[in-house]
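Readers of this paper often ask what the protein records in our data store actually look like. The remainder of this section carries one protein's record, kept here as part of the documentation.

:::
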Amino acid sequence: MSKFIMASKAGLILLLAAVMSACSTTSNASTSSSAGAAAVTTAAATSGAAANVQLASVKAADLVSFDEEDVAAAWSADSATTIALSGDSATVTGTGAAASGNTVTISAGGTYVLSGTLSDGQIIIDVQDDSSVHLVLNGAELTNSSSAPVYIKEAGKVIMTLEDGTVNTVTDAAKYVYPDAATDEPSAAIYSKADLTINGTGTLKVNGNFNDGITSKDDLKIVSGTIEVQAADDGLVGKDLVAVQDGSITITAEGDGIKSTNDEDTEKGFIAISGGTFDIKAANDGIQGETSLVIDGGTYNLVTGGGSANAEVKTGDEGGFGGGGFGGGGMGGGMRGQAPSGDGTQAAPPEMPDTDAVAGATAESAEGTTAPAPADNSAAASTDTAATAETESASMKGLKSGGDLTVNGGSFTIDSADDAVHSNSNVSITDGEFEITAGDDGIHADSLTAISGGTVNITKSYEGIEGGNITISGGDIDVVASDDGVNVAGGNDTNGGQDQFASSGSNLLTITGGTLTVDASGDGLDSNGSITMSGGTVTVYGPTNDGNGALDYDGSFEISGGYLVVAGSAGMLQAPGDASSQYSIAMTFTDSQEAGQLVNLKDKDGNTIATFAPSKSYRSVVISSPDLKEGGSYTLSTGGSSTGTTVDGVYTDGTYSGGTEVVSFDLSSSVTWLNESGVTEATQGMGGMGGGRGQGGFGGGTRPDRGTAGGTPPTGTPPTGAPSAGTGGTTQSGTDSETQM
């Protein structure tokens, strides 16, 4: 098997422990106090010490349980009270309920079976003790022209059963009429002020024309059933928690798809999902947990904000090749900031909120929809959604958590106008399959992003994977980004047009396992701090412009294991640092090389160290492998062909032949810098052709994500000036055996 395609298809990892070697101050990963969040511990680190950051595994079952009442769908006609609905009236047979015109009130615990059609009325549950109500929908169609068809005022718990083989429909009014201006309940087609559980194998269709589809002011649990919701605002809301065990859930919402809202109690406000099928189209967030979000399984198709095609256009961090000048970091250095405007000035990014804002008056929402106007009623005050509830900000994320977000499994297809996976704290992915197209970040955490398993395929993003710190210890990850592929920075993302992270110098990208392939137009791996790599396989293609680098770090890059293949531009070329215990080479070409042209590195015995075909044009390559040995003799060639099998452009097995030798050299240091003439010395403080860092020279500028620019660049910067034409160019004859793993 390939040295670069490792057998590291990691399975489920129950405990993620990332040991980070930082070159500066304390890690900025937060410590959560919520029982619903993954435990995070951070050990303070002084300069040169290690910062230990652990995300303990948390499962949905750790947060919520389903008791016997929740899962019990069976009922007996002998002991149940039946409620037969007929137009604008109802007939009650049994005890505990009474009908008055078009209103049915249930006032005692027990089992109640609803069937028939209520054309304009309301089912009210008002039980003044802790008794549970078992409400069976047995082919019921409920409509109300001025309020909610189902209003649960009080009860110990309500279990709503969808009877097998039945279709049940609940439709509320587009405008609600309340008894006075101070009243704002109910506000959903099915509205509960008690714990609400839905089970059974039937179908429930909810049309929330006024505001939400289904809302519980306490717990909302779904055990099973087919649930279809259309909502003027949010689809499913559980203030204290939303828990889903199974079921088929389809939601079309002008607000969020599924959300929890309790932001006052850290033990509440979470979402825990064990399984089920989810098809959600939401104008705002797809699934949002206020304090935490844990997903163990299920199948998810999420489209938010109209999808990535509807995302805000970002100008990127690419900055152009500013060239010119002797800046603080070298010729033409430090030119990477906001994209310049027409007059050459740097445009400031827009400030956009990431959290929901509370509106105090009727107004057009951030999505451009207008809340319904109050009804004209002299006897009763009418209110509308915007006057009584939150209006959504411009957050249009797929999976979102105000605290920790944990995914232990599931199949996800996410098309988001904003981040696809987002946490205001930590993200932990231990397993699952992700297909992501994102208008902003593919995966984002304000603190720690940790991936230890699963398959992540980000086919479109502004920045692929972002976090205050990032740890990759397993999984198969493919990233396509219009800006940075992997971005490590400090602070938080304000959802503006640019990355608002600030560099603290202590941020760390840690790679210990897994397979990571990056195709980036900006930086490939970008750490506003340092990088450590001790295992895994990393392949980076791009960028092609000299204003970015395939590797970009401010502190150090220490590699002690794993396989690293990089092809990109040469203007800001960096390689692993001199303190690395594993050897690396960094090759700069005089001219740009064609995309798809093979690069081959072999030892003096003809054993291939690496063969790969960059997907973009390139002018530099960096290779690090455990098979590179001090004192060994090696040859780098381009062109030719390979009979091996290719994955992400990297060839395994087979033989390489027909290439053109570019340079032969002996390996004498941890980082060997090459051009077409042979080995050359890396020079501190200069950036190669137009590269480097620091204050820009003529036409330069600074990068806002770097803090103060200028000064001596990190170890591993490229040689001074343009490489001269080499003496290579002889065509190889015969074939070289590829003795890859």
